[in-house]
Design brief:
7 strands, single chain, 179 residues
Length: 179
């Protein structure tokens, strides 16, 4: 009963209380979700090439299935590019830019379609820079139009904050060592 009350309260305040592991497994995310380890992502995307990890624990990579010969193009129908960020070895940000062939063409179709696919509440808010945004606990889900097609970004804000704190501490330490 407490879980239901928390979910209702979060929805009433314009967000959601669901965590990514509670979201429906949507084919629109191609088996990817925040929290996965690098090994779990590589199991889904064997041709994935990882970027270096910075001193604060962040690594980034991206791939464009249509331009990478090692990718199974049929597995990524409707995708232009997928960008991934890993913090301490776990997927902390997932951005998928869809192409013109994707089933939901504009935000008016994309946002409700993605909400249904992921099992998210229809509590999206307008963003100042365009698009729509939904906050689910420590996660932020953003839908925008890029190059005439929709995109989604799912970001672990707690991980982003931890990385920023580490990055700032490293910069302070570096500055302190300068004469």
């Amino acid at each position: 009963m407490l879980t239901c009350a928390a979910a209702v309260a979060a929805q009433a305040s314009g967000g959601c209380a669901l965590k990514p592991e509670q979201w429906a497994g949507a084919q629109e995310l191609y088996g990817l979700r925040p929290g996965m380890t690098v090994a779990e992502v590589k199991a889904r995307v064997p041709a994935l090439e990882m970027g270096p990890t910075d001193a604060a624990g962040l690594s980034k990579t991206s791939f464009s299935p249509q331009f990478n010969r090692a990718m199974d193009k049929t597995a990524y129908q409707g995708v232009r590019t997928i960008s991934l960020e890993f913090f301490d070895g776990h997927l902390s940000s997932l951005w998928i830019g869809y192409d013109a062939s994707f089933k939901w063409k504009g935000l008016e179709e994309f946002v409700p379609g993605m909400s249904r696919a992921l099992g998210l509440p229809d509590a999206w808010q307008p963003r100042a820079r365009g698009g729509r945004q939904l906050v689910c606990g420590d996660f932020q889900v953003t839908a925008t139009m890029i190059g005439g097609s929709p995109s989604i970004n799912i970001s672990d804000e707690k991980a982003r904050s931890a990385w920023e704190t580490r990055q700032a501490a490293a910069e302070e330490a570096e500055e302190a060592t300068k004469p």
